[in-house]
Design a protein that fits this description.
The protein is of the alpha/beta class. Bound molecules: inosinic acid (IMP) and magnesium ion (MG).
Length: 183
């Protein structure tokens, strides 16, 4: 196995939690009515699970609107550094979501292909609305334009791990975000 230096701290758990609370306020303000219908948080597995669970709990503190959860799983072809832009759906949501207000929850928007494919995918289901929340964005890496309605942090073009994000399936469990320095 290739040796790798320990990831370097980048965003603390405290910074992340404070930002998640702010995002929850903005999401609640934009999704007030109709109060009886749930807001569907749709998480992109696996990277978005921490952001989704923290955001949903932060929403419960600032909104009385019901919240429902569902998940999708995608993988993008081209495992190397260059994304082919072809996004494959490995798992779709369990519920139909036609007419629903959907908040797509992503860990990180990099080239933008995954988020773009997911937004188009939900629009095609006839949802009432679909918005995108991403904890992180690397604007320097963008290859296709995608509107990020709620963004945690803009970050430089570095590979990050923790808070759901992995490097070869490691580091997802960390409560903070760190930068991997390969060497
Ligand atoms: P995109 O389609 O190029 O925007 O890639 C989005 C997906 O790539 C994210 O949902 C992550 O799963 C993965 N990804 C991109 N950058 C990173 C990173 O720095 N660390 C971990 N995963 C990443
Ligand atoms: Mg990943």
């Amino acid at each position: 196995m290739a040796s790798m230096a320990a990831p370097v701290p980048f965003l603390t758990a405290d910074q992340i939690q404070r930002r998640v609370a702010e995002i929850a306020e903005a999401v609640a303000a934009d999704h007030r009515a109709p109060d009886s219908e749930p807001l569907w948080l749709v998480g992109a597995l696996k990277g978005a699970i921490f952001f989704l669970t923290d955001l949903s709990r932060a929403l419960s503190a600032v909104s009385t609107r019901p919240v429902a959860l569902d998940f999708v799983r995608t993988s993008s072809y081209g495992a190397g550094t260059k994304s082919s832009g072809e996004v494959r759906f490995l798992q779709d949501v369990e519920h139909p979501l036609a007419g629903a207000d959907v908040l797509l929850v992503e860990d990180i928007v990099d080239s933008g292909y995954t988020a773009r494919a997911l937004l188009d995918h939900f629009a095609a289901k006839g949802v009432r609305s679909v918005r995108l929340a991403a904890l992180l964005s690397k604007p320097d890496r963008r290859e296709i334009e995608v509107p990020v309605d709620y963004l945690g942090f803009e970050i430089p073009d570095k590979f990050v791990v923790g808070y759901g994000m992995d490097h070869a399936e490691r580091y997802r469990h960390l409560p903070d975000v760190r930068i991997v320095e390969e060497g």
